[in-house]
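[job 0412] stage=fold_complex status=start
inputs:
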Amino acid sequence: MFPRAFHYHRAGSLKEAATMLSQLGPEAKLLAGGQSLIPLMKLRFAGPPHLVDLNFIPGAAYVKQDAGGLRVGALTCHADIEDSPAAAAIPILHDCAAGIADVQIRNRGTIGGSLAEADPSGDWAPVLLTLNADVRCLGPKGERTVPISKFVVDAYTSALGEDELIIEVLIQAPPKSSGGAYIAFKRSAPVYASASAAVRLAMEDGVCRDAAIVLGAVGLTPVRALEAEAALRNNQVTAKTMEAAAEAARAAADPQPDMRGSAEYKRQLVTALVKRGLEVALKRARGEKVELSHIYA
Amino acid sequence: MPEQEQMVAIRVKVNGKEHKLQVEPRLLLVELLRENLDLTGTHIGCDTSYCGACTVLLNGKAVKSCTVLAVHADGGEVLTVEGLAKNGELHPIQKAFGDAYGLQCGYCTPGLLISTYQLLQRNANPSEKDIRKAIAGNTCRCTGYQNVFKAIKAAAKGA
Ligand SMILES: Cc1cc2nc3c(=O)[nH]c(=O)nc-3n(C[C@H](O)[C@H](O)[C@H](O)COP(=O)(O)OP(=O)(O)OC[C@H]3O[C@@H](n4cnc5c(N)ncnc54)[C@H](O)[C@@H]3O)c2cc1C
Ligand code: FES
Ligand code: FES
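[job 0412] stage=fold_complex status=done
writing structure:
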């Protein structure tokens, strides 16, 4: 299968990419790792007349820590995030990066491409929502920073303007006594999750001061389970409160039935995933090292 | 659609050999290897980025060459299954797959060999879990995975 013919434009810098986008018009598309776009083009679901290739831009792929927080360049592939010291320090990043598809896809797919694609089953958005990450965007008029909660607008729709691109994801390291976890249920490695849960607990003297619970693949966008969070906030995290949170998360999920399962089946998955995620997040908040991997059916 | 086909000049080293080519930007890396360079060891299975039969190393990283454009290899290095054997001697990974009956029809094998090569380059002593993770993107429809595991373990011991 071949993509439809297109004009190829190789950007030498992020700025040049933004300029190219605005000059070529709304039909031009950016190409990052190509792990979403190339299959779509081969299947002729997409046939952009112009592609602006971001792959040869020097210095656009990095994971670095500075005074402002953890900075991840838009062109950073999932595998490089998985192997980064930052992912060791913030284990939810490792849970997410290491569980995306398979090695080959992780070697090419990028965090910027994943967020821009805004696939309802994409893994990064739910995780970054629990971390209150910011998305730095660049357009012809300059830069702006969009909180991740405002960035994801709808299924396959982000807050990006037609002539804007993502340049960086900015993450504030969570406080020491907090812990996060991300867990998905997948039919096999190279497929999107049937359902997933990203959780974060901020603990203080055995009491949960703050909680974030975001569900993936069970709605048109990631679902923030506010009532589930409320079930934990200012409470002790016990089997009982975790159960209550998991039940509230189940009620918040709004899954579509598809080849991955019925809506009821996916709700059931949510209950189990939230519970498992909370158990791990609690241990991590206590400073325990816990390895977590997705569940493969 | 462009009225006139655009051609892009690329330079790429494949299995150690330098090539200068003019390619259509929509040419996929797997087609460049198979059609332009006659390296048909890399297979096309699903052609939709799932099965991993088309796995090659691009700049040291395993990728599914059916989902990478040839222009992305510009200035880079590719290793395909043809590049594993040296001086007529099979690579130890290839020998291990043969000895452990890690293949039947062999369709998936070039991809599995390259994924194994990447794994052992990074981790000379992989655990069962490491092996599972490393080949999760490679589907085999006839051998199953038990003998593949044995082959990879044997290759790791020999490496
Ligand atoms: C077999 C398979 C399994 C997969 N499984 C999973 C999974 O389990 N979980 C998961 O999360 N993902 C999965 N993916 C998707 C993968 O993570 C992709 O890498 C990701 O969705 C897109 O990233 P990319 O760099 O490949 O982007 P591309 O495919 O290059 O681009 C995707 C879209 O984003 C736009 N874009 C790219 N970069 C930017 C930028 N910097 N700024 C603005 N717009 C941009 C492009 O124009 C395009 O519209 C899978 C993909 C495949 C092929
Ligand atoms: S042919 Fe490339 S993944 Fe199947
Ligand atoms: S050996 Fe036949 S598909 Fe793997």
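[job 0412] summary: Chain A touches chain B at residues 1-8, 10, 31, 34-35, 38-39, 41-43, 47, 49, 51, 53, 55-56, 79, 98, 101-105, 107-108, 188-191 (CB under 8 Å).
[job 0412] exit 0
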